[in-house]
Amino acid sequence: MADTLPTHAQTIIIGGGSIGANTAYHLTKLGHTDVVVLEQGQLTSGTTWHAAGLIVAGLLKSEAECAIYTHGRDLYANLEKETGISTGFRDVGYLQIATNEERLHEMRRVAAFMRRFGINNHEVSVKEAQDMFPIGDLSDVVGAFLIPEDGRANPVDVTMSLTKGAKNRGARFFEGVRVEEILAKNGAATGVRTASGHTFTAENVVICGGMWSRQLGAKHGVSLPLQAAEHYYLITESIPGLPRDLPVLEDPSTYTYYREEVGGMMLGLFEPGAAAWKLDGIPDEWQFGEIEPDWERVGPDLEKAYSRVPDTMNYGVKKLFCGPESFTPDLAPLVGPTPELRNLWVACGMNSLGILNGAGTGMVLAHWMVDGIPPIDVTGINVNRFSREMATPAFRRDRTPELLEKLFGQHYHNENYKTARNVKRSVLYDRLKEAGAFFGEGNGWEQPDWFAPTPEQAKIEKYSWYRQNWYEWHAEEHKAAREDVIVMDMTSMACFSVEGPDACSLLSRLSCNEVDVESGRVVYTAWVNERGGFEADLTVTRLSDQKFWVIVGENSAGHTEMRMRRHILDDDNVVITDITAGRCQINVHGPKSRELLSRISGADLSDEGFPFMTAREIDIGYAVVMAYRVTFVGELGWELHVPATQAVQTYDLIMDAGRDLGIRNAGMQTLNSLRLEKAYRDFGIDVDNTDNPIEAGLGFAVKLDKPGGFIGREALAAIKAKGTPKNRMLQFLLKDPEPLMYGNEMIYLNGKEVGYIQVGGYGHALGAAVGIGFAEICEPLTADVVATGQWQIEIADEKYDATASLKPLYDPDMRKIKC
What we know:
Radius of gyration: 27 Å
Structural class: alpha+beta
Distance between the termini: 73 Å
């Protein structure tokens, strides 16, 4: 290690584990060589040293996950050639087993998606699996999948090899240097101060401090919701004849992974009801420490783990290890620039996958810092996706015990977290619960997912990839929206007031569409980055000369606010206020919505008096509400922004007035199915920062000739100038009414794989499953190619004929909306 501490570096990285070393390595690969890494103990001394070193894919369900994983596996397999230090990587293979048909169905759904992105995940027979893993009892297994290129590495060797590579290009590493303070001025990080009083200045500071990251960030008002939890693995004494090249085995039914370890067997637990560790903060002096194992708590889980490899019980326990690993509320990392301080970056919260995902995460962050734009979709890992309450001690205490089980167990498309719920509730919550709502969670909000006939029936009898018990109730909600009228509580939608003399110029810089419009106009627009990639899709409404409302989905509220604030110029006079909590958004949609609202409002709701995409204040009973005539469901209707103090009364009035019109409450499942029939896009769900509005079919909302332009205009102009894209988002409708689509199903054109479904649902008005996804071919994807091609969708190894369309298959001319 270097001996003399410098006083300045272009980038200071806090933490010398896998993530810090990977970030330094990848920064220097990009020519960003003035990098200093500060480690409070010794390199690898936090959690890296006791990691199991698994380099196995699991079930990956996004392009980003696949890109992060494959980059790491390929790097670790070849890093020794560059540095001369082995990572210990061995491609012994990776077996996943299923003990029930639902799990096997999930694995079949995901395998084709993973193969598309270079991961050789393929099904093998149970006999083949047994032959590969002879020590296991696979008598209850119904199916298995193998990735032969996967395997294991040595975490310490990985880190040392990365460190050597970074040092060879100029990075400097210092051990025994604890950062006490992140220095800041005018809202930006400017350096760090160590516990010994040494001060560094820097252009960038990066927190890669693992389980210490949360408390370091909290000192400076930076919210990093992660929590350490106890993580166990057991190593047996040497087992004669155990193959050294035994594949890694993963078994969700026992929440355990199995691999060979120095002639013995390692059993790693991700048990239900895991224990949070040190809620108040991780001791600074904790380095190569171990937690005293709680045999009583984990005993039953160990017994279950042993049942998969019963012969190992004939051999002694060499080691029962318990060490801390940090976990985030949604089991995805925290990566990117922090909203609270400019020039402060983070890469932490690896959810026990720091070796596996460290290289890919370091690569993403390095490009983000150097290029200004991340190279992959980061909507699912961006640190700004969480609200601050998710870092509270109570939330971390309640959510953590569920996380390990969730990471390693069996998954379903509509499964929600059971813990740390009721963080945010609309004032209508009790009314909706009484009406039979089954609630899901979205960014901490309790959201009605669907409605049962009675509150007692509002439960999921059995999770499944097929039709569940609530399916018909949801279908009735969908039908009511298309034929009668529905009411939806959409209070979770984030609402920002943007006011001041420079509010219009700020929003104009960000928006692809023209937002300098007359008061009362609602504008749908995308926000894009300098490469033309989405940063948001939302509505901007001008309420007066200097006042606008920006409304966006709850999943991207933090990102939207951060983007607005980061683009305020030094001399701008503009104030941004999150007003979400002060109002309740009640949506009323359906062919009978005008008749219903006319019964309780004196406002002119005619098409002439209240045109589509306009907003104005109207009366609803005693309340004065801001009404938007917009839709995300493809029907006539209004969004009503009601003061929270009058929301319950307004809801009651709407329900009473609509009873003879067939009014129904509707939930998020119905919102999804309705919007998919109309092929409406949703940022963070089916378009992300790697997609652009032209290829996504939203060119109508891009005004390349608007005065003053906008961020990303040149990039979008260049894309449009190329003519008909080769890559386009299409809508797909299956011809068979039975199969279901959720997302990640492969798209085929004339027998060739050309893309995948981003998100799917059931189009009850169209009579089959419907979804949207990008298709890419080697020539322009013209309307004629779309119309004449033979399209198929692959679901769990079966291909189904489908209709593809550039226009919405439901009400393509928008007659129902503009009536």
